[in-house]
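Sample entry (378 residues):
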Amino acid sequence: MVAMTLSRVAMVGAVLLGVVAGTPLAAAQSVPVTPSAPVTPPPGPPVEPMPMPTVVPGAPLSSDVPALLRSAPVVETVPAAEAAPASTPAAAPESTAPANPPACVPWKVSTVADGFGVLENLAFDGDGTMLLSESIPFGDGAIRTLTPSGEAGTLVSDVQSPGGIVVDGDRVVFTTGNNVMAGLWGSANGTVDAVDRDGGNHTTLTEGLSMPNGLALLDGGDLLVTHAFGDEPGLTRIPASDPTSAATVRTDVGSANGLFSTPTSVYVGNTVDRSTEVHVLDAGDLTGEVTTLTLPGGGAANAGDDLTVDADGLVYIALNGAGKVVRVDPATGDTCEIATDLPMTSSVRFGSGTGWDSTSLYATSFAGTVHRLTPPGN
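Predicted structure, serialized as C-alpha cells:
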C-alpha cells in the first residue's frame, strides 16, 4: 500500500510538471490562451528539471492546472534527425506509407468554433455532424454536437468526464470517468456507454474501468480502451458478444492514451513516459510483436494525446503539452510538425460527412476550441 501511494504521488508530480496526460482534471478550467512565438534556448547544458512539488495523497490539486502546463520548464528535445529509429518486428503489418512522403510544410490553422468546456475527443457521424466529448468544471459533462456552420448542440447530457468517441452504425459509443484523479487513486468508476445517434436509448455497456481514455472499434465489433494511469496502465479489450467481460490485453505500452485502429493495425500513443512513442500493433494479434515509433522531445513536455492515421498510413498525433500536431511516417520514422502554437490540443481526426473537408484535420483542445488544419495546396 505504501509503494502504491508513493507511485501515485509521483504521478501527481508528473501531472503538475508536465501535463494532465491528455485527460482533464475534475476542476480543470477552460482558460483563454494567447499563442506566443516559440522560444529557442541558448546553447549550453540541459536545463535542470524543476523540483517536484510536495503532494499529500487525498489533498485536492490546484484548479489552475492549465496555467501550470503553460509555465512548465523547458525540456531539452532531441532533433528529429537524432530520434531513435523505429524498430521493425518480424510480423509487423505491411506499411501503406507512400514511396514519396509529403514534404514537411506547415498546414494552415483556422478556428472552427470556440467557447466549449474542456474538450477531450471528437468523431464524425458521417452525416454532417461532429461529435465532441466535453467536461465542465465542477459539473457533469456531455457529448456535444457541432455542424459545419458552427451550430452547437447536445447529443447526451449528464456524462461524467467523457473521453474517447467512436460511431458504430446507428449508435455513438464513448467512455466516461476519464478523470485523472480517478486514475491516480485507482477508482474503477469508468464506463463505456452507448447512445443512439438521435440521442435516445442511452445505455451502459461496460462498468468497472479505471480512467478509460482512448477508444477504438475493431473490425469484428470489439472495442479497445486505453488507460494512462491506474494500477495497470495499458490496453483493455471489450468483446462485442459480452461487453461486461472486459479484459486487459497488454500493459507494456506505457501510459497509454491516444488510440486508433485500421483493418490491419492498432496505434497506441503514450503520454507521460520518458519519451513520446506510438506503438503499432497487429490488429489480428494484439499480444504479438510491436513496432515502436519515437518522436523528438521529452515525454512529459510533449504530453502525447490522441492520434489518427490517414489513408497512406501516416500517423498524426496531438501533443497536448507542446501545443503541436506532429506527423510520423511509420516506414522511416521521420517526423514533421505540421502545426504549432495550439495550446492543449487533445485530439485530431480527418473530416467526414457533408460540410467537413476529408483532407483536413480537425483538432480539439482543453481550451474549448475546435481548429481546422488545412494541408498545403488546399
